[in-house]
Design a protein that fits this description.
alpha/beta; elongated
């Protein structure tokens, strides 16, 4: 054709001829649809391009036009000549349908199932001449249906599949360019929109079984609505047996609707519910199926089609039917995953009666030959996507009315049919009219991604037949954001563009993209293809254990995904070593593997391999690591993570779901804390399938864009000199990291700066290394400490300004963005060059008012007691253990503290303490002292420097001053110590003692000196003794070979010199000099040491007494209950030497010692006889009491009291440990016990009364004695009181024995009160 002709052809699209003759609408109508766009482009170039380019465009145009017209002409000549079966209802209206198709771009054809639409409509289109410029595309919802319809149409057109009628399903394409009709699944047509957006390969498209309303169908219908204005030559026919015609018509702008009524044969519907009122409630679905099949078998010959929800139900129904029907009856399963060979059995009748058990795959399009009867259970397994849990739910649901009619329409094609519904008519009428479209129950992520990549309208604006709910759209966007395919503005990212090029589920595509980057693409192609097909492992109901044993060969201890790799390697090896296909099939069956699914897996893998090769991606040569493979998996499966619950065996999943690992998983009991699952499906429960163990750190790396981070407990860290916080990370509500320390300043610079100022600079939490470099900080902290000390001394907290004002000072000076020590230090150096005092605070800045009266005299830093200085600190915090004034006491000085002197505290607190103390006096006395403040000042002035008065204690000095200054003595007034109540004073009016060790570490703190001594007294003695190292000449002494023994010695303690008390210490065969912290203890120890030294001088006498002690045998027998004769003898000898040598004054030098030895030598014999006599008398009286006591067991309380008294008196060492002057009274004490026992028989009540009066006095003494024992000190007054208590026993129980001094309960009670105060 000439260039002019090409131009004219273009002009005819818009310009009329001069003679106004009609022009064709499309000058390229007789060309292939696929060539038209190219022809138009070449025609434009031939007109507009200059020079040579125009010539080339013209030549290309001519060649293409000629070739395209030639192909169309040949196709038109080869169009089949269809023959129509007139008894089919659709052919009865063939003319009307053809006319509508010719006149309209879209036609809606409705009609009952069995009316012949599926096979006849393509033939009507061929009769109209369609199929010449492109394929007649004919979609089916399932692969099985596409293959079946292709065979039937080819048979009716007298051609072959793969020739005139092509079929294209997943991984199988039997279409050639010369094919007229192309059968395919709707998914295939949808996939072709990516490579052929205008669907130029087709001149007619038939969307069959539109009532299925699958996602693909709805998407196609919307896509076609947008496409039709751009393809006016394209014809679209939408067909179904049951359809909402009005909605379809409106969708296509009022497209005509034609309804084909009638069918070949009528169908009778019978209702046979599984359970009825008059039958047993235990009748189950399979019994009802068997009964229904029995019923229709009695009606006449013909095959039966039974609809069931799934494969498991098919197996169980087959088992039930085989038990009731003869062997020649064929029971055949039919479901989408059935092998091609098994499917062929369905479409090739054998002549025997058949029962076909099918899922809803046989509900539409697929016509099973010979079916006369249908048994409809009314159930189907429907996939629904849970927007709440984000999981697929495969649950058995009741089918809709439309689906039920479709099922009924499967019979009545060879003869009058019968459909038995296993539910009643009321149940049928209550069901929804139509099945929910898949778009209302699916995830839309793939649809959204495809629409984005094709630059179509947003999913919200896409012309769907029924728009998806907002939740579904939002969920689709959320999943794509999870995969990183969309950004926050829902625009495609780089990953999204990559995923859009892959015709895969977005999750699978995301894994492959990640695997490419992580170096595990080889492994991921295998795993991704495995996830795209059904699990090839079979677990027959009756051989589950055997199957599990075989599948262990492919199991991995940590990941089922790696198990797929092992299975793949096994299968590849099996293929390489197979001799025949049959051997491979048997090998698969032996390992409980589906050969069909294994082959499909391999085909999917080859497709994926080809796809990544096209993209130029290279597979890894080095095997991918466990971490890399599972990180790649996580990119697509983040929503399927799981963390094992501590409370139960459930896993906590995304968005609050809880699920279990499926029981068939080899990792069910050993998956670990964190897992990822290929899918989470809800059946009876929520189960995870195909799981693997993962590390939580991977989640943070892979899901960084989804991790929610919360920070808590932001705080300043002194050592790090930065603001830190604890980070909690969650992914879809699952806690990944519960508590992790992070640098918080850069994340929240404003808050970080505020924390740095308040907790760091104002709070004083600055690292020492920085503090030394910051002069301003040292100056400011010193000022603050000085003012705080003033507050503690004044016991008020209104001198130092509050932290807010100090923080405001720093906030005003320090610029924004500084929140750590390093950046602050850098800024400070620069700022202080111009103003060195920029950050310095003044005392006036920090003080609200002056602190008058707070002087060193009133609040000294040290206090001097007994010549020793002790450090004082002050603290104002009522209720705190440190409140008031605290004196630091080294442990070695604890026993030397003068308790009375410490009652005076410090001058600054004395006045207030005295005022409060006087307020505790009775009103009668207190009235004489008003005004109290002035009286207190007079007292302080009078006793200010009176050390003697202060040493006696505060209350005695105050009593003396009251009586003297107020003249109360002359009036006969008495003010006793018990009139005061010091226990009512606040705690800070008692000196607080902080006990420290030699290294300055605090050991204890308290205000009760007695309690501290009881707790630490022994350790204090030991510490004090260790501070003085005895010179060699004072150790191992056997004679007085040293000079004069000093009364006092100086001992260094904590840098000071304190007074110690020397004493000779008994060490057995020698004595040594030691120093003690108390004079009483030194006196006691010295007496034992001096006695030992005397006895060492009289060795001969000691030997003599050892052999010639008078009355020893008799005394030893009496003493036997207490100890041995040797111990008794030793005590008597030591006491005799003590009586002879240790009388006042004790020798203090060698001369006095020798003189005392000479003097004692003559008296030793007499003293020995005297001590032995007294010891014998005491033991005799004690034995008498012991003999008498058992007769009084009935008086348990009295006997118990006497036994306790005897135990105290008659200890093992009673002779030596008891002062001799008291030992001489023991016979009287023991006789008093015997008298008491005599009186006890006559008047037990009197004894009990006297014992009750005596008991409080003994309890007071015993408590005090225990305290003194813990302190390791003795009190002569307490010791004297103890013997007065023994005299009291004589006085109240055996008055006739007399006492050396007057005693009574009242006398001793009064004496004790005086002692308690002292």
């Amino acid at each position: 054709m000439s260039g002019r002709m090409a131009v004219l052809l273009l002009m005819t699209c818009s310009v009329s001829r001069s003679d106004h003759s009609p022009l064709p609408k499309d000058p390229f109508a007789d060309c292939l649809a696929t060539d038209r766009a190219r022809l138009k482009a070449l025609a434009r170039d031939a007109k507009s391009q200059p020079g040579p380019k125009r010539a080339k465009a013209q030549a290309d145009f001519d060649a293409l036009l000629e070739r395209s017209r030639g192909i169309v002409a040949k196709r038109r000549e080869r169009l089949p000549k269809p023959q129509f079966q007139e008894d089919l209802p659709v052919n009865g209206r063939r003319g009307e349908i053809a006319e509508l198709i010719a006149k309209h771009q879209v036609v809606i054809v409705c009609g009952e199932t069995g009316s012949g639409k599926t096979t006849q409509l393509p033939k009507i289109c061929i009769e109209l001449g369609r199929g010449a410029t492109g394929y007649i595309g004919h979609t089916q919802p399932r692969r099985l249906a596409a293959r079946s319809v292709a065979s039937r149409v080819a048979q009716e057109l007298q051609t072959q599949v793969g020739m005139g009628v092509g079929v294209k399903i997943r991984f199988h394409d039997k279409t050639i360019p010369e094919s007229v009709i192309k059968l395919m699944t709707d998914g295939i047509l949808l996939a072709e929109t990516q490579t052929d957006p205008y669907l130029n390969a087709y001149d007619t498209i038939i969307i069959d079984e539109a009532h299925e309303r699958s996602l693909n169908i709805d998407f196609l219908l919307g896509y076609l609505k947008q496409l039709l204005p751009k393809r006016p030559d394209l014809k679209v026919v939408v067909t179904s047996a049951t359809i909402d015609a009005e909605r379809f018509s409106q969708h296509f702008n009022g497209a005509p609707v034609i309804e084909v009524s009638g069918r070949l044969y009528p169908v009778e519907v019978r209702h046979r519910p599984v359970q009825t009122d008059d039958k047993d409630d235990e009748r189950d679905l399979y019994e009802a199926i068997v009964d229904a099949v029995d019923e229709v078998s009695r009606l006449g010959p013909g095959d039966t089609l039974v609809f069931l929800p799934g494969e498991r139900e098919i197996r169980e129904a087959a088992e039930a039917l085989r038990k009731r029907h003869p062997p020649h009856t064929e029971i055949l399963p039919l479901f989408s995953r059935l092998s091609a060979g098994d499917q062929d059995k369905i479409f090739k009748p054998s002549g025997a009666r058949r029962i076909v058990l099918a899922t809803n795959v046989a509900e539409t399009s697929l016509t099973v030959p010979g079916i006369r009867y249908v048994v409809d259970t009314g159930l189907a397994r429907v996939k629904r996507y849970s927007y709440r849990n984000k999981v697929e739910q495969l649950q058995v649901e009741k089918i809709s009315q439309a689906a039920a009619r479709q099922r009924a329409g499967r019979c009545g094609r060879v003869a009058a049919g019968v459909c038995i519904r296993l539910y009643d008519e009321a149940d049928f009428n209550a069901r929804p009219p139509f099945t929910d479209p898949e778009i209302l129950r699916s995830s839309l992520a793939g649809v959204i991604l495809r629409m984005k990549s094709l630059r179509l309208a947003d999913v919200e604006n896409f012309p769907f037949l029924e728009p998806p709910p907002g939740k579904a759209v939002a969920d689709g966007y959320a999943l794509l954001q999870e995969l990183g395919a969309l950004d926050e503005a829902n625009q495609l990212t780089g990953i999204g563009h990559g995923l859009g090029k892959l015709p895969l589920d977005p999750r699978i595509g995301r894994m492959i993209v990640a695997a490419r980057d992580l170096g595990c693409l080889t492994e991921m192609l295998v795993i991704a293809s495995a996830l795209s097909v059904q699990d090839p492992r079979d677990r027959p109901q009756d051989r589950q254990q055997a199957a599990d044993e075989k599948h262990k060969l492919f199991a991995d201890e940590k990941s089922e995904f790696l198990g797929r790799l092992k299975l793949w390697a096994w299968y590849q090896n099996a293929i390489e070593h197979k001799k025949t296909n049959r051997q491979l099939l048997d090998n698969c069956h032996a390992h409980f593997l589906s050969a069909l699914r294994m082959r499909e897996w391999r085909e999917v893998h080859s497709q994926l391999h080809a796809m990544v090769t096209e993209q130029g991606w290279k597979e890894n040569q080095v095997p991918g690591t466990y971490e890399a493979i599972h990180k790649a998996l996580l990119t697509g499966l983040l929503g399927n993570l799981g963390c094992k619950s501590d409370e139960s065996g459930h896993y906590l999943g995304a968005r609050g779901i809880r699920y279990l690992i499926h029981p068939s998983s080899p990792l069910q009991k050993k998956a670990g804390k964190w897992i990822v699952a290929a899918e989470i499906t809800e059946t009876t429960k929520l189960f995870a399938r195909c799981v693997a163990r993962i590390e939580p750190e991977w989640l943070e790396q892979v899901g960084a864009h989804l991790i929610k981070r919360t920070f808590f407990d932001a705080h300043w860290e002194k050592k790090a000199m930065q603001v830190s916080a604890w980070e909690r990370t969650t992914l879809y509500g699952v806690v990944v990291t519960s508590k992790r320390r992070v640098h918080y300043g850069p994340m929240a610079p404003v808050e970080g700066r505020d924390i740095f100022i308040r907790q760091g600079l104002v709070g004083g939490e600055i690292d020492e290394g920085f503090a030394k470099r910051w002069p301003f900080y040292q100056h400011n902290q010193k000022l603050i400490r000085e003012i705080e000390n003033l507050e503690h001394k004044q016991r008020r907290q209104d001198v130092l300004v509050d932290d807010e004002l100090i923080a405001a000072f720093y906030d005003h000076v320090i610029p924004e963005g500084i929140h750590n020590g390093a950046t602050f230090d850098h800024w400070r150096k620069e700022a202080e060059r111009d103003n060195p005092k920029l950050l310095f605070l003044s005392k006036d800045d920090l003080m609200r008012h002056s602190a008058a009266g707070v002087t060193t005299d009133a609040f000294p830093h040290h206090i001097k007691l007994s010549g020793v200085e002790y450090a004082l600190t002050y603290h104002f915090e009522p209720g705190s253990p440190r409140d008031g004034v605290t004196m630091t006491v080294p442990l070695a000085q604890l026993n030397q503290l003068p308790a009375p002197r410490m009652e005076w505290l410090v001058p600054g607190l004395l006045k207030e303490k005295l005022i409060q103390l006087i307020k505790t006096l009775p009103q009668k006395i207190r009235a004489k002292l008003v005004p109290v403040p002035e009286f207190v000042e007079e007292f302080i002035a009078a006793t200010a420097h009176d050390e003697r008065a202060m040493a006696a204690g505060l209350i005695p000095a105050l009593i003396d001053f009251i009586l003297e200054s107020k003249g109360l003595n002359a009036r006969g007034w008495a003010v006793t110590p018990d009139a005061f109540r010091p226990d009512m004073l606040p705690a800070h009016f008692s000196m607080n003692l902080k006990l420290i060790d030699e290294h300055g570490r605090q050991l204890d703190m308290g205000r009760n000196l007695t309690q501290l001594r009881a707790e630490w007294g022994r350790e204090a003695k030991q510490e004090f003794a260790e501070l003085h190292e005895t010179p060699a000449e004072y150790t191992g002494l056997t004679d007085w070979t040293f000079g004069e023994l000093p009364e006092l010695m100086e001992v260094p303690v904590a840098g000071q010199t304190v007074i110690g008390y020397p004493a000779l210490s008994d060490e057995g065969e020698t004595v040594s000099l030691k120093v003690f912290d108390s004079q009483e203890e030194a006196q006691t120890v010295h007496s034992w040491g001096l006695l030992r030294l005397f006895m060492l001088q009289f060795r001969e006498q000691v030997k003599y007494f050892d052999k010639n002690l008078p009355g020893l045998t008799q005394m030893a027998m009496q003493y036997m209950a207490l100890g041995t004769a040797e111990e008794l003898k030793q005590q008597i000898i030591e006491l005799a030497f003590e009586r002879a040598c240790l009388f006042e004054p004790w020798p203090v030098n060698a001369e006095q010692f020798k003189a005392r030895c000479a003097e004692a030598k003559a008296r030793l014999g007499l003293q020995m006889q005297e001590v032995a006599r007294i010891a014998g008398t005491v033991l005799t009286e004690w034995q008498a009491v012991q003999k008498k006591l058992p007769a009084f067991k009935v008086h348990a309380a009295a006997v118990q009291d006497i036994e306790a008294q005897l135990k105290r008196l008659m200890g093992k060492h009673f002779i030596f440990e008891t002062p001799f002057e008291r030992l001489t009274h023991f016979p009287r004490y023991l006789k008093a016990i015997q008298v008491r026992l005599d009186k006890l028989k006559a008047d037990p009540a009197r004894d009990a009364k006297l014992m009750a009066e005596y008991a409080p006095l003994w309890t007071n003494y015993e408590r005090r004695a225990i305290q003194l024992a813990k302190q390791g000190v003795s009190d002569p007054q307490v010791e004297q009181f103890r013997w007065l208590l023994e005299e009291l026993r004589v006085g109240i129980y055996a008055q006739e024995l007399r006492t050396p001094v007057p005693v009574s309960v009242k006398r001793l009670q009064k004496q004790w009160e005086g002692m308690a105060y002292g």
